[in-house]
Amino acid sequence: MLTHLPNNKIILDTDIGDDIDDSFALLLMLESHKFNVLGVTTVFRNTEKRAKMAKQLIRSLGYDHEVYAGCNVPLISRIDDLIPPEIRKKEVLDEKGLYLIPQWEESMKDETIGEKHAVDFIIEQVHKYPHEVTIVLVGPYTNMAMAIRKDPTIIPLVKEVRVMGGAFEMDFAEWNVFCDPEAAYILFHSGISIYAVGFNVTRLTDLSDEQVNSLKNSQSPTIKLVYKAMQKWFAHYEFTVPVMHDPLTIASILDDSIVKFEDHKIEVDLNSRGKTIESDKGANIHFSVGVDKDKFFKLLQEILHV
Q1: Residue 247 has what pLDDT?
Q2: N or C: which end of the chain has fewer CB within 10 A?
Q3: Any residues with CB less than 8 A from the CB of 262 and at least 6 apart, and which?
Q4: Which residues are registered as beta bridge partners of 161?
């Protein structure tokens, strides 16, 4: 059953434009009508184009929420050290010499995005609404780490940070943490209340052929837009099955019975480029240990008709 959260203030921080699940997370947040959406921020590699893509999706649904571009690069790592050569050789650069995100359409170029930097927007909103803002991170955590470093006074004022990331009890550096492990380390050790929806549970939420076909046959202009973007993502990365990593993170707020969390002391292992391991030296994190797939997909069906 959906929790009624009309006053639940939320910021979604996303690397929309690569994997299609970011788009579904954005749609689920908006179409649930259970959040007071303060704004959307973008992170990692060509955040301006990511922001314009997000803005087009938001407008297609009839909303006017602002979108703010954030940090393009990790705190320390170089992009050349992150992206495998076989992927880099497929990449195309835009007119500014930046990575052209696979889902980019020329129709997005005229979208208007906010002038503030995403980091400044996050800081501003936390001070404006102390103890009320939930920040959801479904890309690398660079913007949030920068906000903490730029203005540490926000730490006790953030209601909660909910992340898609980590991989509890798996010998694996999950992508969002891998891309900026130093940012994850700063966030996890900040003292902010953190709920981590990890790859250990999100990997179980792949869409069936029937669900993909329902997207293909949808008459919704927005779903058509998302399906077209999904096909471009498939072609670029040679993937065939969409997995709902990021929507599960939103769903975990809408219905707290979908994802089971346990409190664990979690360390971001910088020596392994971001494995999330249980350690006495770790930070106290509410980490996902189980998921009710049937309930999650029922929620997607109710809200997005997927």
Answers
A1: 94
A2: N
A3: 286, 287, 289
A4: 135, 194
Closest CA to 181 of 201, 200, 166, 161: 166
Q: pLDDT value at position 1?
A: 39
Residue 268 amino acid letter: V
Q: Over the chain (306 residues), what is each successive 10-residue block's mean pLDDT?
A: 64 94 94 96 98 95 96 93 83 92 93 98 98 98 98 98 95 95 98 98 93 84 79 71 93 97 97 94 97 94 85
Q: Give pLDDT, residue 3.
A: 47
Q: How far apart are CA 139 and CA 179, in angstroms?
A: 9
- Residue 70 CA to residue 115 CA, distance in Å, equals 11
pLDDT at res. 21: 93
> Which pLDDT score is estimated for 100?
94
Spatial contact of 37 and 6, defined as CB atoms under 8 Å apart: no
Alpha-carbon span 136 to 141, nearest angstrom:
10
Exposed, middle or buried, 135 (CB in 10 Å: 0-12/13-18/19+)? buried
Query: What is the value of pTM for the model shown?
Result: 0.94
Nearest to 72 by CA among 135, 117, 107, 124: 117
- Strands (DSSP E) found in 78-221: 133-137, 160-164, 194-197
Do 193 and 278 touch, CB atoms closer than 8 A?
no
β-pairing, 160-164 vs 194-197, is parallel
Does residue 71 contact residue 206 with C-beta atoms inside 8 Å?
A: no
Strands (E), 15-94: 36-42, 67-69
Residue 246 to residue 211: CA distance in whole angstroms: 17
Question: Residue 159's CB: how many other CB atoms inside 10 A?
Answer: 17
